Amino acid sequence: KHVNTLELFGQTYVQDEWTNIPATVVDKLGRNLHNQKHHPLWLLKERIKDYFYREFIGRCHKPLFSVHDTILPVVTTQQNFDSLLVPPDHPSRHHGDSYYVNAKHMLRAHTSAHQRELVSTGLDAFLLIGDVYRRDTVDRSHFPVFHQVEGMRLFSSQQLFASVTGSGPAGLDLFEAGTRTPSKQESHSLEAAHLVASNLQHTLKGLVHFLFGTSVETRWVPCTFPFTHPSFELEIKFDNAWLEVLGCGVTEQKILHAAGAGDRVAWAFGLGLERLAMVLFAIPDIRLFWSNDARFSEQFKVDDIHQPIRFKPLSPYPPLINDMSFWIPSGESFDDRDFYELVRTIAGNMVQEVKLIDEYTQPGSGRHSRCYRLVYRHAERTLTKAEVDLVHRAIGDAVETQLGVQGRG
Ligand code: PHE
Questions:
Q1: Is there a contact between 248 and 234 (Cβ–Cβ < 8 Å)?
Q2: 192 near 305, Cβ under 8 Å?
Q3: Which residues fall in a coiled-coil region (predicted)?
């Protein structure tokens, strides 16, 4: 019997009904943009490292935070979900949300997937930078591959309380057998939860001020993650709108316990590099990070990583707009993201955005129709109408053959 296999980083994986990684995504594996010297993502990574190196000195004048940026992106679903207490029925596990190698392995959807293993090795403070993979919409700020920085810091009772009393734990405890409230976990004392959360917020606000200057406006928004409580998002004001830049919180004690660090408390954060780099360097389109065009990369070749950079657009190429409508047979389910991915697979870098612009259900038959607007615009060159028409027709054919829908002339 013939089995299909997938070869990733020298490992062979047997494909199954969960396998859903298109060749366009496999192509990105190993590119490691965050490790390419002078790439804007590398530059931002270096600035973030520099903040943590300057601000936090450990024993023997060594940096407190260790940096890990070569951990491979193929992980088990256990690492990506279970190790972080993501419940079995959590929506983030849906097949349509992530890229699966097979039922057991996937491309990490976040760098948090490595929290438990790094804590298990005995680390007390670390930054982890890596590529992450999500099936998502098509627009200027979304791409199936992006990059995150994960940060985590653990505190012993001594370390946490020394900062307030100046003399070590003065009758203060990290833990108590209590109840979970909006501001703390059941096993944490209120003092411990407050100190960890305020250390976290102080650290991250410091980072944002280091990157954007102290005049940037920020705000904390309460939110939830299965692996932290309490949890927050940090937003910054940019172009008069609030932009979410990171998620963070006080690590669930169960995770530390499972990693052999149950005597400590911790915070963790996860930050998207592209978002931040787009704002910091005024990069208008996320696809540019993948560009091989020297007119892009040359702009980031600076001797001093802190030198201010404002990206000068290569030149605004005109968009070509084409709509596409099709019927979805009644009773069939249809996932937008299957369509988006097919568009990416066929049109590659030619499509800037796909928008659902109209929906309609035929009263009698229950047949459902959808109309999408495809904005064709390459980030690096002008497209011709002929080449766009060709690609648009190929997409139209593929939706019929691969997604089982019926084109509407
Ligand atoms: N992993 C979360 C995400 O990708 C971010 C996060 C990391 C939140 C660590 C809390 C703690 O959205």
A1: yes
A2: no
A3: none
Query: How far apart are alpha carbons 124 and 259 in whole angstroms?
Result: 12
Instruction: Identify whether the C-beta of residue 23 lies closer than 8 Å to the C-beta of residue 345.
Output: yes
Q: How far apart are CA 245 and CA 238, in angstroms?
A: 11
Determine the atom of ligand 1 nearest the C-alpha atom of 115: 9
Secondary structure of residue 369 in the 3-state scheme: strand
Distance 12 CA to ligand 1 centre (A): 29
Tokens of 163: 């900062």
Please, are residues 201 and 220 in contact by the beta-carbon 8 Å criterion? yes
Q: Is 153 helix (H, G, I), strand (E, B) or coil?
A: strand
What are the tens digits of pLDDT across the range 205-253? Answer: 999 999 999 999 999 999 999 999 999 999 999 889 999 999 999 999 9
* Dist CA 90 CA 264 (whole Å): 27
Sign, Cα dihedral of 163, 165, 167, 170: negative
Asked if the interface predicted TM-score (ipTM) of this complex is over 0.90, the answer is yes
Question: Is 130 touching ligand 1 by the criterion CB < 6 Å?
Answer: no
**Burial environment of residue 84 by CB neighbours within 10 A (0 to 12, 13 to 18, 19 or more):** buried
Query: Residue ranges of the alpha helices (H) in 213-352?
Result: 253-258, 273-281, 294-297, 336-347
Res. 75: pLDDT tops 80: yes
The pLDDT value recorded for residue 139 is 86
Q: According to the model, what pLDDT value does residue 330 have?
A: 76
pTM equals: 0.86
d(CA 16, CA 98): 15
